[in-house]
Protein 1
Amino acid sequence: MRRRHALALPGLLLLPHGASAQEAYPSRAVKLVVPYPPGGTTDIMARVLAQRLSERWGQPVVVDNRAGAGGSIGTDYAARQAPDGYTLVMGNSASHGANVLLSTTPTYDPVRDFAAISMLAVVRQMLVVHPSVPATSVRELVALAKARPGQLTFSSSAIGGAPHLAGELFKLVAQVDILHVPYNGAAPALNALLGGNVSMLFGSVPTVAELSKTGRIRALAMASATRSSLVPELMTMAEAGYPGVEMDSWNGLLAPAGTPPAVIAKINADLIAALAGAEMQERLAKLGFERATGTPEELATHISRELVRVRRLIADAKISG
């Protein structure tokens, strides 16, 4: 009996903190921390994932919005929770990138304090301008900016977010002087553009694609290596003559460091299955997401590489928090 019992153990997901070895993960509700307010792209992705995992696991996956400090408050909270698989967190290019690099007193380490589970999706950024801006191409916009140094402005959802970094990267590559105007969230930044208070912004496809089709704003290019399936006619910045202006926003799932590898592997396999299939692909595409699931190692490597790239951009552009 002892021999059969020992052979059976590798097939079980052992739970820490006194849970029975016979309990398979998950045996109770799972909290999914979103370090941003409801309604943004990270929150939307989290709710899609929570619904699918709840159906698959037969347990509630509860979205817990803990906004503040550009995502740092909720991310720090998640890092300090028990590493048992029952607290997960949505990470992105800000929470696990620029936020920490721009802080003089970071409260968490985006690599050391987390166990990567999987990349979830990529959200591409579009360069759009107010209709009053007399530029119908990126080259015309650059010429205008050089003729009026410091007079054109671009808004963003926060210092260090993908839209802000895309703007700073554009300034470096095109060698133009454009004033950054940060707002507290994507909606205020977009409203500033719609109201003509700023000249342009780099906005996520889900946020600005439809508005560009109605003529309320003018789309000039994608700040990405490839075109978007939602706006396939829109060229990339490289195609427009400015290679290197690429700043996709990404969403990934992570857990506190020390979460058992068997639990990480279970969640990874289940979320990949949950987001698979043509119907789910179509649903995500309509929301502006491009599914990019993979292994824990791939997400960890991506985070480390992006930290190096963003650290260099922050230094070159002299960005401060």
Protein 2
Amino acid sequence: MGLNTSIHPAKKTLAAVTWAVNKVYITSTYVINKMGGVVAVAGAILAAVTAFTSVTVGKAAD
């Protein structure tokens, strides 16, 4: 008889749900933490494109 056969099915289900919730929490926390860096890079790219286009449009208007 294996060890898992002596555990009640409800306890197995609860353990599986707890494990899944924990993994979702860890993953979402990681994504939220990394999102700050992604937003910073996107902002820097947008600022560079804006600066480039404003200089280019200004020269074309002259």
Protein 3
Amino acid sequence: MSDTVTTSAARVGDFIEVNGLPGRPAKRGQIVEVLGAGEHVHFRVRWDEEHESLLYPTDGATIVHPAAHAKKT
């Protein structure tokens, strides 16, 4: 069973991981609000750096359910 889900199945509390720009590290944050629907879904994300922003996911974004993430530890 995969730990990742599609962006349309993302929920508040899920984590999102996005690839960094070339030469930059990847970023990780927690979804605090799901906005839009279907192909227009986007999220308010609280990043590990302690700031929030809106994210319109593209290729390279991975959603991870907290329970699935905890099983790895």
